[in-house]
Specification:
This protein has 4 helices and 8 strands, in the order E-E-E-E-E-H-E-H-H-E-H-E. The protein has 166 residues and is α/β, with parallel strands linked by helices. The longest helix has 19 residues.
Length: 166
Amino acid sequence: MLCCSIAVLGDSHIKWNKNNHSCTILNTDGSCMGSPIRAGCGGVFRNSAGYYLSGFSGYIQGSSDILHAELYAIYHGLLLTNKLGILELVCYSDSLLCVNLLKDPTTMFHVYAVLIQDVKDLMEQNNIIVCHTLREGNQYADFLAKLGAYSYYDLVHHTSPPGGLL
């Protein structure tokens, strides 16, 4: 099942949308920016009404690959899902390639096969669905991924929204 978390108002306004899910929503994103390139990941947990529950951001040392950053964001989001005790989750990513890699059978020769399988294992442990969203509907996660890319911390758990997010 491929779902998309967008809402179109008129002809051009796109925003975050729960897409009729009544569980916890996780939006994730990866970021590669700067010179030299710095990679980061981030994500935001919200309830079905859109209220902030938790978030995370982190620097991915030694990586400059956006696919790795996107997969790493999903991985860390799902690890945090377990720590927060969330049993039902919909995870949105703006990387259609990541979503497809997680829905399709794992190719054992893929450069990120181990990471992909680790994410799939976490998805199976709980009731987790991974869906695609447009970049415009993923702005909070994008902010946190960029925050991670510019930090020096592997992972920061944000129990309240960091400054600039609101």
